């Protein structure tokens, strides 16, 4: 079974719509971190957020918000009032205490297309 | 920009050849990780180096090898290239290898094996 699952491979929205990207993870560790990265066409992965397994408080940063629910092993990402510049591939990732260092296990990614 | 630079940006090799990819980590970072990202997929962890020692390895064959130098820059070497090795190779540097350490990624090297 995949450790990090992003069931939406592609989402298309019109500018100013809200959009939620889903992420479900699987781990046996009690200590772990969850991340979201953005990958624009240039290829570089841009860090968006990090969350540890002991902090379920939701977070908001401008138009971005994250909903972490341990009960459903989900870490969903919402963009409010989407903009064309949000178009990219978004990856959810997991870092587990049982793995080497800060090794990341990525999901398959969700390609977000925001149309004007 | 993250300060992580990779070279070359693009590369075309023939099956069976060997390739070396390079990564210059962000200033002060002593940990480098390499990832392989096939087209349309998420990155997969190859290995990590912490202070010049291999600190962990993913599910990749021994023909994938690496080095980290005293200045913490790194190389990824792939021998006996196969068509399936065609991918974007990403390098990430971090200050330490603790679980919660943020990794900063370079723009990658796109390798095409023909």
Report the sheet with the most strands of chain A, covering strand number, pairing sense and barrel closure. 6 strands, mixed
- Could you list the spans of chain B in which at least 5 consecutive residues all have pLDDT below 50? none
Tell me the total number of β-strands of chain A: 12
Structural class from helices and strands of chain A? mainly beta
Instruction: Kindly estimate the percentage of residues of chain A that lie in beta strands according to DSSP.
Output: over 45%
Q: Please, what is the average pLDDT of chain A?
A: 93
Q: Which regions of chain A are unreliable across 5 or more consecutive residues at pLDDT < 50?
A: none
Secondary-structure-based class of chain B equals mainly beta
Percent of residues of chain A in helical segments?
Answer: under 10%
Compute the CA-based radius of gyration of chain A. 14 Å
Compact description:
The complex is a heterodimer of chains A (116) and B (114). With 116 residues, chain A is an all-beta fold. Chain A has strands at residues 4-5, 10-14, 19-21, 24-25, 32-39, 46-52, 59-61, 64-69, 74-79, 88-96, 105-106, 110-115.
